[in-house]
From TrEMBL:
Residue ranges of coiled coil: none
CDD domains attached to this UniProt entry: Radical_SAM
Protein name per its UniProtKB record: Radical SAM protein
Species whose genome carries this gene: Streptomyces pathocidini
Lineage top rank: taxon: Bacteria
Keyword Iron-sulfur among record annotations: yes
Keywords: Iron, Iron-sulfur, Metal-binding, S-adenosyl-L-methionine
InterPro entries named in the record: Aldolase_TIM, Radical_SAM_PqqE_MftC-like, rSAM, rSAM_sf
Signal peptide per UniProt: none
Pfam family of the protein (one): Radical_SAM
Domain Radical SAM core residues, every copy: 64-299
PANTHER family: PQQA PEPTIDE CYCLASE, RADICAL SAM DOMAIN PROTEIN
Amino acid sequence: MQEITQPLRTEVFLSPRWRHRYRAIQVTRGSDGAVLEVPASATITSMLDFNPQWFVDRLVQTRGAAPFMGILDLTNACTDACGMCFTMAKRKAEGLNRHADVDMVLARIGQIQQWYPDAFRLVALVGSGEPLIVPGVERLLHGVADLGLALHVYTAGKNLSRPDVRTALARGAVSVRVSLDATDEDTFQKVHRAAGLSERIEAVRRLVAARDAVSGRSQAMVGLSMVIQKANSHQISAFAALARDIGCDFVSFHQETYGQVQGGFGETEAQRLTEDLAAVEGMTDDDFTVTVPRLAGRPTVFERAAATLSDQATLDRCFSSRHKPVIGSDYSGCCKGGSNLDFKQHSYVGPFTDEATMTTLRTVIDRGLGTALGRPAQLSCDSCELAEYDRAMERILAHLDHEQEWNTRLVPFEPGVDHDAAYEVLFGAHTPSTALAVRPDGTLRTHLPLLPTDLASRNP
């Protein structure tokens, strides 16, 4: 592949050539030349599409007191009933027909933009239901673009069949990731418990065409996503080929993260999956990127439950909640509240129709979640799967404390060679409540107990 020129630090978002293509960021102090390297596994899945050079500048200038993106929790409804859905319990408990008012959400997004114009630059539509089915979604998509903000969308893809939705996304999105998880109708119905894979594939193809037709070439990257599970594990190579053949810019493969898929893999199957993932990495070229778990590792949690009490000081150190507030019908300070009812209830603030809610949200951003709540909260911060992001932010801020000058550069990765050196890919095993772990060198650890409320990455 051709060598990529480092992005300008003034560019908010990475060019398509850089996105999904760096393994670390290096932050160099101006005073003594000391270098801090932060692995991409701590950043690539949390910074989303931001240019890390721009991001680090804003992080240091604001001392972390800034929202970089608003995560929209627009609806509890969905077109599908995927077995791997980790928001289903929360959505069922609240009712599967709740929708946020898009005009109210747009007004609140505009308010946050007025407060933090130099940092708030992205709106992510990622759940907890299917974001593109909320009434008035086309108005929301255009409204976000009219505010000068970018869109990152994670969708099951059914409503991409609507031309008005495709047009809005081609105009304002920087990334559209479509969860299809299969290459044939039978497998799709097993995984998504819905019909119509061919129609969704055609809709993605048309979205790529709409993107390419935008004057000046839209920056929107379009890709497919697969959560690896028993029903689709034989389709890894075919899924990557499908994404490339319909014109996508990337394909991403993920291990099941939140304990909703029961696994059932044996040792031979785990080894085959690892070999298949290694093979599809080789498909990466100048125009197409393959992301596999070993490249962008994230901790695996087998049960998400708020059990451990966190004190106010610990809550104040949560950069995830400060940088990525969840916006919908109502607000909870914990950023996991959009997908899990326990965390929502233990950090609940109030409806977004109330100005008092916005006042508390601003306190979370400026001073921290603990200060805003004014109390400890049962949020299990000691085992949070987002803690790696918080640690990365703390390391960068400490490294650049009292610095006047610094520089940040991206370290590109070589497909098939560069991986998170300590990360193990986990698969649910045949035996109930046990897992298999494939080490970076390809060797296998077996009969690992599934941790009930902790991180499997702690190597039981």
